[in-house]
Design a protein that fits this description.
disordered N terminus, 13 helices, 218 residues
Length: 218
């Protein structure tokens, strides 16, 4: 018999599938194929995630699935595995034609702990889908390392990029170059960017940021 957690998840999956709803990052709509195929593949992904055991054949099959719902769930599953061998699928999933799949892949890459993915996430910072780009910025910050801060600082300079998400993510690294970059944006024309900058400055306040924070209260 399947463990309780898997049985519960399968029940929820069945409920949402047949009710026409989808859960986190699943593209809306019926499956490409049959509901039975969707449920079977998803149940195997849940078992893989629950057992923390990477299965290349299963994840490869799910990465190439014609069902974008499955591709998104596959991205989340392999990210939660935190197995570097599973990261081979992310370059494909981050370029998926469906935005919800790319969003899931960007989010899951941040969970994976694999800093090798930063170079692919840097490309995702310029994704046409704004939410994908924002999740890529957050993922880069979570992964950290030598490449992370330069990538996020560069994103702050791109008018069409995920500037607010990059500013939010930079609160994790309150070093002088980050503080200087954020202070330059406290009077930015975009209110979303200003809110993100003030949030980042307030999370780990430094003496240099206090005037800007006080000014935001006026």
């Amino acid at each position: 018999m399947l463990p309780f957690s898997i049985r519960s998840a399968l029940f929820l999956c069945l409920f949402f599938s047949f009710s026409g709803c989808v859960s986190f990052d699943g593209p809306a709509g019926p499956p490409t194929g049959t509901y039975a195929e969707r449920i079977e593949t998803y149940s195997r992904l849940l078992a893989l995630e629950d057992g923390r055991s990477y299965e290349p054949l299963l994840t490869g099959y799910a990465t190439a699935s014609p069902d974008p719902w499955i591709r998104a769930k596959n991205a989340l599953a392999i990210g939660r595995l935190k197995d570097p061998a599973a990261s081979v699928h992310f370059p494909v999933l981050l370029r998926d034609p469906e935005p919800p799949v790319r969003r899931a892949a960007a989010f899951a890459a941040g969970l994976s702990g694999d800093r090798r993915l930063i170079r692919f996430l840097k490309t995702s910072l310029s994704d046409a889908d704004r939410e994908t780009a924002s999740r890529a910025a957050e993922a880069i910050a979570k992964l950290g390392g030598d490449e992370a801060v330069p990538a996020l600082l560069e994103a702050l300079e791109v008018p069409s990029g995920p500037r607010a998400a990059a500013a939010l993510a930079l609160f994790r690294t309150p070093e002088p170059r980050v503080l200087a970059a954020l202070l330059k944006l406290t009077a930015d024309a975009d209110p979303e960017v200003r809110r993100a900058v003030h949030f980042a400055l307030a999370r780990r306040p430094k003496p240099e940021s206090l005037p800007a924070l006080r000014s935001a209260l006026e």
